[in-house]
Amino acid sequence: MTSATPQTAATAADPIDAVRLREDFPILAEQVNGHRLVYLDSAATSQRPLPVLDAERDFLEHTNAAVHRGAHTLAAEATDLFEDARATVAGFVGADAEQLVWTSGATMGLNLVAYSIGGASASSSLALRPGDEIVTTAIEHHANLIPWQELALRTGAVLRHIPAHDDGTLDLAAAAEIIGPRTRIVAFTHVSNVLGIINPVEEIIALAHQVGALTVMDACQSAPHLPLDLPALGVDLAVFSGHKMMGPYGVGGLYGRAEVLEAMPPFLTGGSMITTVTLDRAEYLPPPQRFEAGTQPIGPAIGLAAAVRYLDGIGLERIHAHETMLAERMRAGLVEIPGIRLLGDPSTGSVERVGLWSFDVEGVHAHDAGQFLDARGIAVRVGHHCAAPLHTRYGVTASVRASTALYNTPDDVDALLDAVRGIRPYFGV
């Protein structure tokens, strides 16, 4: 199989050719239920281009071996590829290789951080005590909520939440009141996976650092869509998942400032993360290897490096501009359809967002609406999108989410709008 070559990066004003890019994604040529596939579920999992498929297959066919533990040629070559992938993915988010820990995805990364903090010694600067406060937001994915709930239960810390306005934007005035002297951790999403709104994370980070709190950011919905420089942003820890950014399943990254990673005790223990072991005790490697016990996702990491090279080759500013155009087109159509209510629709145009919208269809359950769309070849997400408290905030149990990526076209959006217009009449509402 020959890999297609992505377009050469250009200025943000230079629009990408999504029709041409679709040729790099074999699955987009599929037919679903007799219709061309309109894939609008990239916020759940994105499709993979040929260079990613080829990179992982090439590794398995020619270099497959365990890393950091063999003296033979294949092991040395695999280790080089694995560590080159680390440097490539770290560079994609502005970091050094030593600041990137491989994980199985963002959920594992967040649990790693929470359990590591929970295991910190009483003398550690990370240790939590009864009465300390952990602050999250009311719009978090469960993966950036439940680990903190559990950590609070184990340590006696108090969990608090930054509320959101009706339009989905975070209440920064409330945040300034909530984040205070007792705050030890502030965990937040860069982009809501339900609302698509790009949150003012710089302001949240500043509020947290004013009181010496640790900041933890979920970058799953920003890494594939926005230029990211995590060190420049000032966040202490951040996570992202490969399968949401054109990469393989089973791999993700945890970025951490060097001094923060150094202060964190290991979460998982075993082989490959130690320097010395006796029958009674062990000493651990420095980060990032300290957090990488056992066999790592070698092939997926190499595939993820190919994915970020693909994204870089197109240009994240161009991708964001393209997806913003699609989001505007989608909103303009959805608001004109009777019985459709958007979740998180700021009244001001100054709120930046990525290319996704979640909506409620009056009188029709989201799962029924999703099946109606699927029958027409349109793949969307239905449910609470692992953000049940946010849906409760809007008075619904579930919604329909349509999310775009660089390979979507205006025709995809128009196909969605045409189909949504038929949902309520079909169900007799």
Automatic annotation (TrEMBL):
Enzyme class at the top of the EC tree: transferase
Keywords: Pyridoxal phosphate, Transferase
Domain Aminotransferase class V: 38-416
Entry keyword annotation includes Lyase: no
Catalyzed reactions per annotation: (sulfur carrier)-H + L-cysteine = (sulfur carrier)-SH + L-alanine
Record-linked SUPFAM superfamilies: PLP-dependent transferases (SSF53383)
Superkingdom per UniProt: Bacteria
Obligatory cofactor(s): pyridoxal 5'-phosphate
Family membership noted in the UniProt record: Belongs to the class-V pyridoxal-phosphate-dependent aminotransferase family. Csd subfamily.
Physiological role: Catalyzes the removal of elemental sulfur and selenium atoms from L-cysteine, L-cystine, L-selenocysteine, and L-selenocystine to produce L-alanine.
PANTHER family: CYSTEINE DESULFURASE (PTHR43586), CYSTEINE DESULFURASE 1, CHLOROPLASTIC (PTHR43586:SF8)
NCBIfam families xrefs: sufS
Protein name as it appears in the record: Cysteine desulfurase
Provenance organism: Microbacterium flavum
Top-level taxonomy: Bacteria, Bacillati, Actinomycetota, Actinomycetes, Micrococcales
